[in-house]
Amino acid sequence: MLELYQFELSQYSEKVRFILDYKGLAYRKIEVAPGVGQLDLFRLSGQRRVPVLKDGSTVINDSTAIAMYLDRQYPDKPLIPSDPKQRGLCLLMEEWADQSIGLLSRKVLFGALSQNQDLRTAILPNQTPDFLKTLVSSVPGELLDIVGAGVGYGLDAVKEARDSLKQDLEALSLLLLDQPYLVGNQPCLADFAVASLSMLLKFPTGPYLDIPESLKGKGIPGLADSSLYETFFNWRDRLYADYRNPLTSSTSTTPNGSTRTSIEIE
Ligand SMILES: N[C@@H](CCC(=O)N[C@@H](CS)C(=O)NCC(=O)O)C(=O)O
User: Which of 34, 60, 120, 261 has its CA 20 to 30 A from that of 12?
Assistant: First the structure.
């Protein structure tokens, strides 16, 4: 069976999960433990980022490379349109989504975490003992601001990212006003990329992710709850309902078998 090395809360991993579901391919999720688990990942794939897909003896890293591999290897339900113009648009939008929504949404989530104690508590792994949750969620937001500045997520960077995302979400809402998919009449790689990379802006409402119930349907205040972007988030809900499989009883596991959920913001 296909194996996906992932973080449950990684939006690039979500892109691959969405594509696997669309193509109807069964897979096993292996939750990588940040830090030590990434060393094992390095041994497997030569780098430390998720997602990594293992198909028999073939190991592929990077969500775009994985998408291309899956489309070549499992051509049913193609991800890339054959019409040249649609193909060009699809490839362009996927690359843009990776660079824009994917990266910017981490920054604004970091900003939101530093300002919202409830969100910080909710986003900690399910298994975090209560006393630790209380401890971490009581870290003052200002301290997180300082940590954020150290990794290029200072207040100005967060505001800039937020403004860019507003433009992205407006553009997507306009495009989707009168068409069912971003390119043509079938979903393509661009749709799955845009839908999954916006995961951190607003977590999907349905039973798709192994995250606390309190997080589902919640997201960045001012973006997730704004009527300006309703068209986009409604479109995304529909894409999830139509093509993403709900979670089953099979849980995500670390290579040593224990269940966990974690988040990487970097
Ligand atoms: N371009 C890569 C981006 C992957 C990526 O940024 N992965 C993040 C999680 S969303 C990661 O593994 N971060 C851990 C690290 O950089 O150490 C892709 O499309 O797969």
Answer: 120
pTM of the entire predicted model: 0.87
Report the pLDDT averaged over residues 58-84: 98
- 101 token code pair: 């929504």
The residues, any chain, with a CB within 8 Å of residue 8's CB and separated by 6 or more, are 29, 31, 209, 210, 211, 252, 261, 262
Residues 177/183/186/188 CA torsion (nearest 10 deg) = -120
Residue nearest to atom 10 of ligand 1 (CA): 10
- Cα–ligand 1 centroid distance for 200 (angstroms): 14
pLDDT at position 253 is: 47
Residue 148, CB-side half-sphere exposure with 13 Å CA sphere: 24
Instruction: Give residues (CB < 6 A) around ligand 1.
Output: 7, 10-12, 38, 48-51, 62-64, 98, 264, 266
pLDDT digits (tens, 9 = 90+) for 212-238: 888 899 889 899 999 999 999 999 999
From 7, 12, 48, 209, mutation site for ligand 1 pocket: most ligand atoms within 8 A of C-beta: 12
Checking if the pLDDT of 257 tops 50, the result is no
The secondary structure of the chain in percent helix, strand, coil, rounded to multiples of 5, reads: 55, 10, 40
CB-based contacts of 112, cutoff 8 Å, min separation 6: 119, 220, 221
Q: Which amino acid is at 205?
A: T
Atom of ligand 1 nearest to the CA of 106: 10
Looking at the predicted structure, is the pLDDT value of residue 133 above 90?
Answer: no
Report how far ligand 1's centroid is from the alpha carbon of 259 (Å): 21
